[in-house]
Design goal:
Elements lengths: L18 E2 L19 E5 L1 E6 L12 H10 L2 E6 L10 H14 L3 E4 L15 H4 L5 E2 L9 H14 L2 E4 L12 E2 L2 H6 L3 E2 L2 H17 L2 E4 L5 H12 L4 E5 L1 H5 L20 H13 L4 E2 L14 H4 L10 H10 L6 H16 L7 E11 L18 E11 L2 E5 L3
Parallel strand pairs: 3-4, 4-5, 6-7, 7-10, 8-9, 10-11, 11-12
Antiparallel strand pairs: 1-2, 2-13, 13-14, 14-15
Length: 407
């Protein structure tokens, strides 16, 4: 990783709790560029287990360098990158291309996923054994594994290797060309909808397999109340399952939609009842992690409205302010629960260590979301124009200052 500047925590144990402290009590080296003021809050380095950095293959959308810089700005010191790349990391040779880019460009810890199937086509199992030592887990994110037999084979191999299967759950036969939630907004505006069953039906299938096989299983970006209920019940039975949802699913629903590509993601924003179930699932621990599914595209790809734009929005630079503004400040979710879902639970599930990594925030600062100021190449965010509380002042990873606010 690139060294930008050095700081050292006086206590060498990892930051494992939040708190507001005089900065002099935390650091032995000055020149941090922030006042010694107890209004700042120190958080452990956040960990996002679902991002798309688009390299190799799609560097016009994002690069490892721009993606990792955006992550650092958001307080993240570790991320896991998805496998929908070119070449797809489905073999040792293809994975090596991505690993070289990470080594050369990343300013934070970047852990790639290996694909579950060759080319993410769902037809042939990828070289899971060969990639295992260099990946966080295995995922065909962007595509659900349609074959039950293929998913069973993947789970058996992942169990043998001690790795997590990370599942994008989507039944292709239930999509019917949809691109937003099959709800009130779609009906009122003549859009083709995606039913919730396309998500929860595959989750139900996979949970039966996990119960049979006993592998470690993680569900990506859950969006539907039925999915929350399925995972809650499975956990109560002792099934080895964890899951994530995104900030946008926790604070928005299809009543917030506008005729713009920055509101189009997969899965889509669903009904208010789904959003409420997700918040409840986060509170009671059914939902373990908050992950952004940071998915940058070019301006052209996101300029074609809800019907024609590419699926995906960016989120690394707004995630914590969104969660703090709409969930913590409103009293809906505790700060401790948010930080656990952003920093602690993801690391625990994927075996990602804490080092000397943290971020310093001014929670009293309020800024308007301006995508033109993003460090990511992606600009499409449903939170454009929102006034959000929480400004990151500094991010430190392995003792290196990897982000410092410019004002």
């Amino acid at each position: 990783m690139k060294q930008i500047d050095k700081v050292r925590m006086m206590d060498t144990t990892p930051v494992s709790a939040i708190g507001s402290f005089p900065l002099s009590s935390l650091f032995s080296k000055v020149d941090l560029g922030v006042e010694d003021d107890d209004r700042y809050t120190v958080f452990p380095g956040f960990c996002d287990v679902h991002v798309h950095f688009r390299e190799p293959g799609f560097s016009y959308k994002e690069t490892v360098e721009t993606g990792s810089r955006a992550a650092a700005r958001g307080g993240y010191t570790a991320v896991c990158t998805m496998a929908n790349l070119n070449p797809v990391p489905d073999s040792v040779e293809n994975l090596a291309v991505q690993l070289r880019l990470i080594e050369d460009q990343a300013c934070i810890h970047v852990y790639p996923y290996g694909a579950i199937t060759v080319g993410e086509k769902g037809e042939t199992l990828a070289d899971l054994a060969g990639m295992a030592k260099d990946v966080a887990g295995f995922s065909d994110d962007g595509r659900g594994v349609q074959s039950e037999d293929m998913m069973r084979a993947a789970m058996l191999k992942a169990k043998e290797l001690g790795k997590v299967i990370v599942a994008h759950c989507e039944v292709n036969d239930l999509l019917h060309g949809g691109y937003i939630h099959d709800g009130n907004y779609a009906k009122a505006h003549g859009h083709r909808g995606i039913c919730s069953e396309s998500e929860y039906a595959q989750v139900a299938r996979d949970l039966k397999l996990v119960e049979e096989i006993g592998c470690a299983y993680h569900v990506c970006h859950i969006s539907a109340k039925e999915t929350v209920a399925l995972i809650r019940d499975a956990k109560a039975r002792g099934v080895n399952v964890t899951c994530e949802t995104g900030p946008h699913y926790l604070v928005m629903d299809d009543s917030d939609l506008q005729e713009h590509g920055r509101f189009k993601m997969n899965p889509p924003l669903r009904d208010a009842s789904d959003r409420e179930a997700l918040v409840e699932g986060l509170i009671d621990g059914t939902i373990d992690c908050i992950a952004t599914d940071h998915a940058p595209h070019s301006a052209e790809e996101k300029s074609k409205g809800l019907a024609g734009s590419a699926f995906g929005v960016v989120g690394l630079e707004t995630a914590f302010p969104v969660l703090y503004t709409y969930l913590v400040k409103t009293g809906k979710v505790s700060m401790e629960r948010i930080v656990d879902a952003l920093a602690v639970a993801p690391r625990k599930r994927f075996g990602i260590p804490f080092g000397n990594e943290f971020s310093i925030w001014d929670l009293s600062a309020c800024e308007t979301v301006d995508p033109d100021r993003f460090l990511s190449k992606g600009r499409a965010t449903p939170f454009e124009g929102h006034e959000l509380y929480g400004k990151n002042i500094l991010t430190v990873c392995d003792g290196n200052v990897v982000y410092r606010a410019d004002n």
